[in-house]
Amino acid sequence: MEALLAVQVVVAELTGDIGGSLALVGYGLAAIGPGVGIGIVAGNAVQAMARQPEAAGMVRTTMFLGIAFTEALALIGFVLFFLA
Amino acid sequence: MELILAAGDCNAEDEIICVPERVNELFENPFLGGVNRTMLLTALVAVIVIGLLYFGIVRHKKRLVPSKFGAAIEALVTFVRDEIAIGIIGPQHGLRYFPWLLSIFLFVLVSNLFEITPFINFPVSSRMWAVPALLSILTWFIFVISGFKEQGFTYLKDIAWPPGVPIALKPLVGIIELVSTFLVRPFSLAVRLFANLVAGHVMLTLLLVSGWVFISGAGGLAKVPIGLGWLVVGIAIYAFEIIVAILQAYIFTLLSAVYVQTAVHPEH
Fold it and tell me: How far is B139 from chain A (nearest CA, A)?
């Protein structure tokens, strides 16, 4: 009984501490996917430019487009962090 | 300005984070007969853009020898025309949308650069309904209307009942396409600009104000190195924000052009 009470107190302390910063964890989770995605987009764009330098202008425009679409997810997470 | 500097007056030993009592006064408090700071700065952006175009293009044409300023403005305008309007939308329709693209490019560029302009330090595009939402709603109207004008009812039919998709998947793909074209596009266009500028503005404010508070606040000389560290990081972010401001203006214009292009040209 005493052990259960102690566990309850610990859980209450933990959740009490976490409560305010859960939105921050949410933003961190939302940033993982777009982080990986932007890395893939930019890395492949660099590779494409190195293989075919004369197409660099077109590749760069397409890269910015891809980054903009990928980035949107992280930015929505950022906005929700403020709303939460 | 007073409110931000007032953060330095708070008791650093008792309260770690100082929140000014009325933060919204910075943006929403009307002071000139109903004109608040955001409205004033938005009007200033418009004046600057019109001034740039008038002195750079209109007055510049009368000169025999181009000045450096005129050549710079001309390079900017030519970039938007050749790379964005003609390069994305195509030579057939591009020039018709060029005035709109040039207007949003210059307007967003100047309002983004206000973020790093000394003594202004406030990007108008970080107020959601002042610049980003308004411009993306206007872009939405332009690409929807031009889609109906160029393709007629086929525009809506090709989105809601896409050709070249297996018949069993057509309702599902149609719903996804409808939502992504008419709802997600304007929303993400506005949120992208807004969130980038808010993030940069918050980061700059935090770093520079904490540098200032650490250096000049109470508590002795021991914490001055920490404040200097914040200042150095803040100035590095300052340089980074110049790139972000220009890139976000370019991306906003580029995406508007891409949306118009998908509406004007039917997919093959």
Answer: 17
**Is this structure's pTM higher than 0.95?**
no
Identify which of B16, B22, B28, B31 has the alpha carbon closest to the alpha carbon of residue B3: B22
ipTM reported for the complex, 2 dp: 0.72
Q: Residues of B numbered 137-166 whose beta carbons fall under 8 angstroms of chain A's beta carbons: which are they? A: none
Q: Which residues of B touch A21 (CB under 8 A)?
A: none
- Contact A68/B192, CB-based, under 8 Å? yes
What are the CA-CA distances from residue B124 to residues B80, B219, B260 (Å)?
A: 22, 36, 25
Q: How far is B180 from chain A, CA to nearest CA, in Å?
A: 12
| Domains along chain A with CATH numbers | 22-83 (1.20.20.10)
Would you list the domain boundaries of chain B? 2-264
- Interface contact flag, A79 B258, Cβ < 8 Å: no
Helix B185-216, helix A56-83: angle, nearest 10: 70
Tens digit of each residue's pLDDT (9 = 90 or more) over A47-63: 999 999 999 988 999 99
In what helix (H) or strand (E) does residue B46 lie, and over which residues does it extend? helix B37-53
Q: Do residue B199 and residue A78 have CB atoms under 8 angstroms apart? A: yes
Place of tokens 């510049």: B60
Instruction: Report CA-CA distances (Å) from A18 to A3, A26, A28, B57, B177.
Output: 22, 12, 15, 58, 39
Q: Closest approach of chain A CAs to the CA of B195, in angstroms? A: 6
